[in-house]
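Section 5.1 Outputs to date
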Amino acid sequence: DQDTKLNTAYYIIDTKKNLKEKGILESDGGFIGIGGNQKIKLKEKEFTETDIREMTVFPLGGSKKIQLMSDHPEGSYEFEMDDDKYVSLKVLNVDDFWKMSKYLVISTK
């Protein structure tokens, strides 16, 4: 049971609009939508649970624009593309990728 908890992470991949409607992304500061910061609210019921040992590729559905909203170290992942569309996020180093946060939030467009 403890092993399962240690290797459990949560992810959500959706449009910025939907992430805001679900209450996951919240704007902070700025003036009329310019210069603010995005804060992530961890609402587990909106996320998909996964085992980090088994899921290392997250499909992005061929989006033209994506934004990684959660914090994950550069070099621990890469985006795979087909033509000019993002196809997936591939975790290259599982331990590094999940060490800052067990939540993955990706905004698509």
